[in-house]
């Protein structure tokens, strides 16, 4: 019987060693690399999520700053994106200048397009009642809904003593001819005046 126990113990011990070897080999060769790969992927996912969260927060912050900047400077942006037809712009300019000039004549001198901007020069000639009216007109040019640049030199002459002044002024209108890319329009990312 003792031979039986010894043989039984030897077989069990051998089986145990073989079993432990197989289990250890399986764990080290198959399971540990998968665990390591899982931990590495989990770490990358956490890192990516952190970057995404920070980027989303930065985007939200920049978006709100941009929107508030646009809201604060809406009048200026509207001027930059003013791109109505030239005839309509000329009519609006004429309505504005009629407040200051008498017997006014507006002539189109040049119109040049460069870098998505249209530069149009108008010569305005007419009578103006006083220097203060001319100065008032120049100071209020920035209230127009488009960008206007007063070109120098100005020509001012007295017709007769104590009468109206004959003035000749060149105004340059600068309008945007920018057309947003189709992706910008599709994604609704363009500026809306």
Q: Please, could you describe this protein's structure?
A:
This protein is 54% helix and 26% strand. Strands 1-2-4-3 form a four-stranded antiparallel beta sheet. It has 193 residues and is an alpha+beta fold. It is rod-shaped. The chain folds into two domains: 81 residues; 93 residues, Alpha-Beta Plaits. It contains five helices and four strands, in the order H-H-H-E-E-H-E-E-H. The N and C termini lie far apart (102 Å).
Topology:
Blueprint: H1 2-72, H2 74-80, H3 86-97, E1 101-114, E2 117-128, H4 131-139, E3 147-158, E4 165-176, H5 182-186
Antiparallel strand pairs: 1-2, 2-4, 3-4
Return the structural class.
alpha+beta
CATH fourth-tier homologous superfamily of the largest domain: Ribosomal protein S6/Translation elongation factor EF1B
Mean pLDDT comes to 84
Taken in chain order, the helices and strands follow as HHHEEHEEH
What percent of residues are in strands? 25-35%
- Biggest sheet layout: 4 strands, antiparallel
Q: Estimate nothing, just give the exact number of structural domains.
A: 2
Write out the strand line-up for the largest beta sheet, numbering strands in chain order: 1-2-4-3
Number of strands: 4
